[in-house]
Amino acid sequence: MEKTKVLHIITRVVNGGADENTLFTINGLDKDKYQIDLLTGKETESEILKRISIENHINVYQVESLIREIDAVKDFKALMEIYKIIKDNNYQIVHTHIAKAGVLGRLAAKMAGVENIIHGVHGITFPDQIPIHKREFFKNIERFCGLFTDKFITVGEDMKQKYIKANVGKAEDYLTIRSGMELSDFMDASNNHQDKINKLKKDLGIAEDDLVVGMVSKLEPRKGYKYYIEVAEKIIADHPEVKFLIVGNGSQFDKLKEKVKNLKLQNNIIFTGYRTDIADVFSIFDIKILTSLWEGLPRVLVQAAATAKPIVTFDVDGAWEIVDQGENGYIVPMKDTSAMVEKLKLLIEDEKLRKEMGKKSQKKVNDSWTVENMVEETDRLYQELISLK
After folding, report:
1. How many domains is the chain built from?
2. What is the pLDDT of residues 230-283, one digit of tens each?
3. What is the pTM of this model?
4. Fewer CB in a 10 Å sphere around the end CB: N or C, the chain?
5. Do 259 and 160 share a structural domain?
6. Residue 102: which of 73, 131, 123 has the closest Cα?
7. Residue pair 98/120 in contact by the 8 Å Cβ criterion
8. Within this chain, do residues 265 and 356 fall inside the same structural domain, yes or no?
9. Under 8 Å between Cβ of 40 and 13
10. 20 sits in which H/E element
11. DSSP secondary structure code for residue 180 in this structure
């Protein structure tokens, strides 16, 4: 049987949810049915590309002119290079991911006459938080690309509705496929022995009876850590026994650490830096919070739910997919730190409520979040499209 030739295009492979989803999908699809290639840009390290090629048994193309930022000259060059690769390999399916690769990849696929063009929407490219002129510019680009997109895959229903409301493509061309995640470590960590939890707390300078609130993400402006610190400051004033963890690294690490020092809160707000034992770190949280200004689907909320933690989050894209208001956590208005403090206090002052909500969080995580389900649904879509041509 002749294999279906598929090309996945993503701007860069670093350490994000879209990257992980793409690699899980590539790795999981049946190699007896598909010949799968990956095309990525300059910002993906060569060692990562080599590892991807070997581990997934696929061809990997790196287009040096494909970069994240807008650059008319490089973007045109990238478009023509992507077009040539697609044309030379005669792909039956081109599956793009995220903004830049989504635009150039779909346009190149259309120019090359590809029969099936799929775009993976892993995050809103026109979030409300950016200036309106930029927002409308990005909407118009998405509308244009939507004219020759056969199917859109969104990782959440609310994201799907925002794109449809913005008149990007047709409603019938949208399909929601949940992000596939390896959650077994998080499920297991929810049963960590108290001795293990106490040891990790001690390693981080936290007393055994301290209550821990945490956030895990890159330390970047869109993650809203200024609001996280504002919330922490208000809580600590009334509850000095509460410790706030900032887990991750990023461009704002030094700036945020200096801010915490100036506020004299360094004993209560702890920076862990980058950690590889995220599931175990989640196990010491009593409450998981999220102050992001925009997301696709917040994977950390799914992971927190799998670890049986109550959640308090801003009303960010994807939050409603995971949090049932008042059941396993609370969703508060964007940037409303007073509302977040109010809900946090309810949980801080009520251990029984924390445990009840944590149990409900874990029940919320089901088979729809597995890698296997994501791969099966993607395979089903590919087969459906092929059969129609």
Report:
1. 2
2. 999 999 999 999 999 999 999 999 999 999 999 999 999 999 999 999 999 999
3. 0.86
4. N
5. no
6. 123
7. yes
8. yes
9. yes
10. helix 17-28
11. P
